């Protein structure tokens, strides 16, 4: 329907040499007598190239959301995956390529496609249908195509989220590799450290973008990255670089979480950041903050700690130890 309206608008411009009337053009002065016989009509805004592009982007984002759902399900849905790939190809080749002509929105489309590619790869990996190294290649390739838009706040945060998701996927592979091929496990840990560092670098760059109101959440994610890098020091990873950097990683996490709590306007974000800071301090040997927080709101603190374990920020051993304090 939008495409038909767009074509009709262009035809009218070509025939009349004028753009279709909008609301302001109809708002001429009218006498009371004329108003008695006036006929009202609905003014339909013309469909533009940007409108069509916005619709296509929304459809690609819907596909990304479906992939997220498939990832969390962990099962194999071949029909859905095939359908997603077909719909993406149809949108990109037959619509988006045409709508982009003469616009400056190529970077925006590249980022949306990169997000979809990464989420699709994650869904296939979680279902056991994609090798981890192929997944990593898909991520690197997807974001190598994102040009100027990668330096925007949204682009930097999206890249960080993709890198963190890849690390979560690698955790399951490491657990299997440690039992069968220790040398493969070491290679995986090197990759995990590399991608988590890339995520941290992206978030650090996002902090430098002026005028963004979501800096508290960025600092929160920075703290999470340091906790995830710290996790590499725990069994079964036992990554040497992480072990040597434990104190620094925990100190950095505390700083980032403290900054997130200071900047947060939402009480929920402020509590999450404060509890995570207390957890990082506890692992470093300073339990006072966590004990105090539990005395004020034990249920709320435990909820944050539970989420930290689910997100891979805490090993099972540390989770039970911290919960017992």
Which structural class do the helices and strands define? mainly alpha
Radius of gyration: 26 Å
| Percent of residues in helices | over 70%
Extract low-pLDDT stretches: 4-10, 12-28
Task: Provide keyphrases for this structure.
mainly alpha; 0% strand; globular
In words, what does this structure look like?
76% of the residues lie in helices and 0% in strands. The chain is mainly alpha-helical and 325 residues long. The radius of gyration is 26 Å and the shape is globular. The N and C termini lie far apart (62 Å).
Describe the structure concisely for a colleague:
The protein is mainly alpha-helical.
Describe the secondary structure blueprint for this structure.
Blueprint: H1 2-16, H2 23-26, H3 32-36, H4 49-73, H5 78-99, H6 106-126, H7 132-144, H8 153-180, H9 182-207, H10 215-231, H11 240-244, H12 246-263, H13 267-283, H14 288-310, H15 316-323
